[in-house]
Model the fold of this input.
Amino acid sequence: MEVILLERIEKLGQMGDVVKVKDGFARNYLLPQKKALRSNKANLEYFEKMRAELEVLNAKNKENAVAVAKELQGLSVIIVRQASETGHLYGSVTARDVYDAITESGHKIERRHVVLDQPIKDVGVYEVVVAPHPDVREKVVVTVARSQEEAERHVAEFFASAKAASEAVAAEVVAEAEAVVVESEVPAETEA
Done:
């Protein structure tokens, strides 16, 4: 089925694009969520009349999403679950669990904004993407642990290793820059 997109949809297209999608995807998601219209002459004319209004609405939604992303910047949440001695969870942590933890921390997002490709099945620290708009993404640090104390220990280790990694990258960049400067100072050989 061909549809006209009413907003940008990741991995599909931009607003106004006419794309071909599977019938079920269009009927069950795009059309009921008002993210697309069936592609026909009447709907194309309707879309062209409404394009400016839709662009203003999309810009407003993006501004709101940027504000939400700024609130989420640097956020770290802890999820306590039962796990084996090896760190494997009895069950898993899903996008719904991450959503619940973020909302309990006082932030307002929708559950569909949490992007988690597969459930978390082990104790540890994870970076989970929250996307309140297709063009706006923010990472939230999610710590899964057996207890609050263990979670705090994992977070300290995670940030210490992240700091060490960023310092190593910075040192590497400086070394590369110095190598470029040294190479440019070597006089070129002249042919006699």
The mean pLDDT is 84. The first strand starts at residue 2 and ends at 5.
